[in-house]
Specification:
Elements: E1 2-5, E2 8-16, E3 19-25, E4 35-39, E5 49-52, H1 55-70
Antiparallel strand pairs: 1-2, 2-3, 3-4, 4-5
């Protein structure tokens, strides 16, 4: 489940139970208009971070990484 971070409406957290397991946010700087995504806790051999063009692509990529980690 995605929810807004308390500190910024542009910062989304992926929550599983009571744990924050990932994050989606705009990177700013030279990457304005793109979105970063990352798994925030688990150390894993799966792809755990990236930068994509849209918010929806970031959510999809983060969920894919989380599901790969769970598998």
């Amino acid at each position: 489940m995605f929810r807004a971070n308390q500190t910024s409406k542009d910062d989304l957290l992926l929550v599983s139970g009571e744990w924050v397991v990932g994050r989606v946010h705009p990177p700013g700087g030279t990457l304005v208009g793109k979105f970063n995504w990352s798994l925030t806790g688990p150390h894993t051999p799966v792809v755990a971070a990236g930068t994509v063009d849209t918010l929806e692509d970031a959510k999809v990529a983060l969920l894919k990484g989380w599901r790969a980690w769970q598998a």
